[in-house]
């Protein structure tokens, strides 16, 4: 079978192709444009871009596309001068077309568009009827028009000759904009949908195509004269319809269906080789009156449709004699759209995961097929990311060296859902040893997007089409072949390797609290603790918006590579199966108990004469929870949970968590050793009280064990108990140490990790995915710490909080919490939804959108429906404290009623209406409040936007006050006086003057203060010292080229900055004599937050990192290889995530033991062999004199 390609568009508007002979999606060569949808044939692909213009992509071939242009030179005989250019008044033009009716001078023949080029100049055709003419190429006749001959006769009164010039189509393998005849820059009407077909109607001209389109006004247009020699066609012609159309589909032959506003379908009749546009319309009713048709796709003799509830329907009885068909059959699966390609093969895009599915089993005898199967092919550009899951130190794995421009988004802006990779099903046995290490054994097939139906319901709905000729089908109900059960007992499916949904765009700065980068919520459908509303892993498997199989030929016997996971992945990446057969379970338990018995006998044999001092005991807690199953279809299933805690003879405790579930009436279980658990994270969910459990292996795979309780109290009990058990297993108790690493999730939960000396070691470094994080009560958005135990935080409502020295609070009570220093804490945040409207010629702007439009009440992305009544607080812990109100502070401005206007969804919005604005939106905001408890006291009365505490390295003088700088929510710079270990809240604020509002500030270990202004520029504060805590003046530091900075972090000597496009920069040339540095050097991209510690160690929150096979947003990463001679480091080590929002490493001054050869280092001036002591560096800095301040 010769290879052909499948075309698809992702949620970012990028067009990809997937060859039937390949296994990777390849980005279209001309990738500058962003498209809404495409329609493909074997030779070309038509598409509608986000500018509503139509483009065609003609595939390259060895045979060029050439078109001949002709012009005729005419002459009449004159008795005086012979043949000349003097004509009778009734004669044709001197230069004309073959008919003589149109004036056609040579210099008036222009190229139809810029996509053509001339091959040569005009020349005379000296052949006539296959025979050569006399010199000059003239042919003769009695008069115009008449029969011409190549021989001149006595009665030849007129003559003519043909001039020829060839033009060549040059835009091959590139998107060419289709010009309009009247105005090359504009279409007759902005288009909303487009479909290409009709190549089987006739062979003349060669490669003739029927190109149909639907405009935003609901009109149907037809492109005239599209063929292989003329791939652009000539002009658009309007085809009258009995209603307003919203979507159209054209088959290879004579089928053409259109969906209407009202949910009905129009069928075009009378299409044939002589009339490719057809003659009349017939109406087909939807399967159910309450759910109209929103999408339809046709083939040679099949029609598939999607209704408003996203159900998939198949039309029976469709053929050339009866294009309306007879009845509807509901198929399994929920789809966003379907597309019928060559051989009536069917592709679709899943409603929830936005994956591309292929309909298997489609044959001429069974056109409806059997089952949906997900295409798991990855993108060509992601091959380099599919290495071993244990390779965590690849510096260039995803963080690139290229600088992101302002036009590039670090996260999806108006998109997306999550694609999932293979995950073993419940039926696959795993040997006993695989409990500790997953084996590489699984079925690579993927289950369909069904939602619980095991067979396809064949509910026939009679079609009230006006013409129903043809044989009547027999039974009224039918099943279309066996369908695998998509429930818990389904076959092995794909494993989603990510826990972050990229569909949620970053909210505009105007929506979030001033001075804060907007964050996302934790996933309710995503498989991760800290994801957004849907499980999305980043760009490893893109989220698809459209698919077209019109150019993809798949034979019934063909073996495709689309459904198998590519090689090159480690076993731990390719499979994670903890289900064990009963026989193996029994053998495993028997072996464990036998070994324990033998060990006990052996150890007690020599100590029988001693009195037992500690009693060995086993304590068990059981309960009922729900578990998010590890295979498709991912859903919550009821499980029994048992926590077994063992107390050994030495008094040490260890625990195992067992999760018992049932598959195919067979009991199975998985278990987790709590001494391997690295973090327990509450999950942000509007409907469930859930939490996630990570181990190092599951951290690398971005796939935690996720559990949910029926009540908040039940979840808190389990969370507190498991946290306590984890801490006991690791012997971690009490308050965090002064040098602890603090972090915050996008849910606002606070976590700490005790640093290991090996964490910053140059050799035998501890991977950061093995760090143990425990939760501290409270709720914050920003946290900043110092190695002397001073910790400050800022809430979502800009309230400043100071750490009191306790631990616990919130859901952690009893042994998991201190008895003092726990106080009530509250926080307030805003929830935003958008009201969307589309312009209607009759009613003006209204809430009646196109079926393909976003919801009329949605989130910022438009992908989730969010009504005032249906929108809930971020989680069950939040309560509303205000009513909905219009937000007038959104970026881009609004009109007096809060509306923003644009040409279409999505687009750039502005606060005024123009003639081309067909849509508008309005932002509504509502405040919610959370009340909890934790070891935090409020610092009144100034609301803060950012805070920074001086990082102190080992050996620094700890007798004086601690320097603390902050930026208020209004942009004022403040310096806190009187901060010490005994008084961490300080005594008063000292205002530091600025000429513009600031957003970020950081103070380094040598009192060097850097700040970022609201306009994105950087500033350095001169002469800051313990005796002069506020310094004397600001020095302006130029930003990196074409970038606007948003955050800065200063360590002992290193200065790092982060711009609005996620680029991380290092300040070169910082010395005691010139502390402002000389230039910015790019380090990495895809960064959301950076923290530089007292050892100049660099930690970040990454926007995108490669997991095992996916990306995760909000992941803690550690810069490796940072040394005095190489301050920028070498690579990244990936830790916990995604869903983390903030981290501070500035309290961690734990230095690894070094050999004698490492005792000497390089000072700021680059002189080797001199120990860089803090006092020496600080003294040099204080003596330095900078340039004249600005």
TrEMBL record:
Q: Name its GO BP terms in alphabetical order.
A: autophagy
Localization terms from the record: Cytoplasmic vesicle, Autophagosome membrane; Lysosome membrane
InterPro entries with a match to the protein in the record? Beta-propeller_rpt_TECPR, Peroxin/Ferlin, PH-like_dom_sf, PH_domain, TECPR1-like_DysF, Tectonin_beta-prop
Q: Where is this region: Disordered?
A: 405-494
GO MF, one annotated term: lipid binding
Key words, A-Z: Autophagy, Cytoplasmic vesicle, Lipid-binding, Lysosome, Membrane, Repeat
**One Pfam entry name:** Pex24p
* Signal peptide extent: none
**GO CC annotations?**
autophagosome membrane; cytoplasmic vesicle; lysosomal membrane
Where the protein is mainly located, per its record?
A: membrane
Peroxin/Ferlin domain sequence ranges: 64-125, 137-170, 826-887, 898-931
Q: Which domain of life is it from?
A: Eukaryota
Domain PH span(s) in chain numbering: 619-729
Polar residues biased stretches: 465-481
The record's annotation in PANTHER family points to: DYSFERLIN-RELATED (PTHR23250), TECTONIN BETA-PROPELLER REPEAT-CONTAINING PROTEIN 1 (PTHR23250:SF1)
Report quaternary structure and partners.
Interacts with ATG5; the interaction is direct. Interacts with WIPI2. Interacts with the ATG5-ATG12 conjugate, the interaction is however mutually exclusive with ATG16, since it does not interact with ATG12-ATG5-ATG16 complex.
Record's function text: Tethering factor involved in autophagy. Involved in autophagosome maturation by promoting the autophagosome fusion with lysosomes: acts by associating with both the ATG5-ATG12 conjugate and phosphatidylinositol-3-phosphate (PtdIns(3)P) present at the surface of autophagosomes. Also involved in selective autophagy against bacterial pathogens, by being required for phagophore/preautophagosomal structure biogenesis and maturation.
The record's similarity note reads: Belongs to the TECPR1 family.
* The name this protein goes by in its record: Tectonin beta-propeller repeat-containing protein 1
Q: Which organism is it from?
A: Neovison vison (American mink)
